[in-house]
Design brief:
This protein is mostly helical. The protein folds into two domains: 101 residues, no CATH class; 187 residues, no CATH class. Helices cover 65% and strands 0% of the residues. It is built from nine helices and no strands. It starts with 6 loop residues before the first helix and ends with a helix.
Length: 297
């Protein structure tokens, strides 16, 4: 597979990526709603939650149908949440962004974004970003991260790293798989250790019930999946960036006394945002940080 495409072909592929991303976003909406309820994401077909009528394909076109129907069911006129269209637009934008990270011949990614190691990495990033979208919205809605996303992400990260070893700067499948496994462990093991030690301390002090844990297990499995895709540096960066983002959100809420809203914000979205930051600019940020630490020549 070529490393870069001619500009005209790249534009065509990027336009396709946007349309395809919107379609994937439509499916991810189904996953976000049904997976936490242990429902099939395949059957039954999409239907109105108010009147129960099946939605025909021509009323289920990503983004377009929402605005044509003015966000309402064509049968009973019950309103649909704008989030359905927003997720479709978000995923379309993310798929286009992944294409921009593999620019055409003679081009470079915009806004200082780090380039992907080749065209083969683009669909891998589609899979990765789709998982982050589902994990984020499910966590916001239910305070859980489904195993099908976290553990499934670990498996997908390992498999795709072997298939596209250049994700980790490797030139052989076994090297890519090894780097992915190291990244998975670098994300999972430290946080799981903190979770177990913290739980033991908190239980001894009576701060949590005997059947409670100091940290959610879903977040730990999610960072393992992130490490499987992004490597150990990406996992470490995502954890630190998530803590920073969480602090930036928490401080104003604490100052204003809005503790109820603070308690309703899970950690998974911060991990996803941290991983997204690493994907776009992480190596550059790390380079700047290391340069600041280096002694002056």
């Amino acid at each position: 597979m070529p490393e870069q495409l001619p500009r005209d072909l790249w534009l065509l592929c990027t336009a396709f990526a946007g349309c395809f991303g919107a379609c994937v976003g439509s499916f991810l909406n189904v996953c976000i709603y049904r997976i936490p309820l242990d429902q099939s994401v395949v059957a039954p077909r999409s239907h109105c939650m108010s009147c129960g009528k099946l939605i025909p394909w021509y009323h289920n076109l990503p983004v377009i149908s929402y605005f044509v129907l003015r966000g309402r069911c064509a049968s009973c006129k019950a309103p649909f949440s704008f989030r359905y269209a927003a997720v479709e637009l978000l995923v379309a934008a993310l798929f286009v962004l992944a294409c921009c990270m593999a620019p055409p011949l003679g081009g470079k990614p915009p806004l200082g974004i780090v380039a992907l190691p080749g065209l083969a990495a683009v669909p891998v990033m589609w899979v990765f970003l789709s998982g982050l979208v589902v994990a984020t919205f499910v966590d916001l809605d239910h305070f859980i991260i489904p195993d099908s996303i976290s553990i499934g992400g670990m498996v997908a990260g390992l498999a795709l790293s072997a298939l596209v070893p250049s994700l980790h700067g490797a030139d052989a499948a076994w090297r890519g798989l090894t780097m992915s496994a190291i990244g998975l462990a670098a994300g999972f093991v430290p946080l799981q250790t903190i979770r177990l030690v913290g739980t033991a301390i908190y239980r001894r002090k009576g701060r949590i019930a005997p059947d409670e844990y100091a940290m959610g297990f879903g977040d730990i499995k999610l960072i393992g999946a992130i490490g499987a895709f992004l490597g150990w540096q990406g996992a470490a960066f995502s954890i630190m960036a998530a803590a920073l983002y969480g602090t930036l959100v928490a401080l104003p809420l604490l100052v204003t006394g809005n503790r109820k809203l603070l308690d309703r914000l899970p950690f998974g979205p911060y991990l996803s945002l941290g991983a997204f930051t690493w994907l776009l600019w992480g190596p550059r940020i790390l380079g700047v940080y290391l340069a600041m630490l280096a002694p002056a020549a």
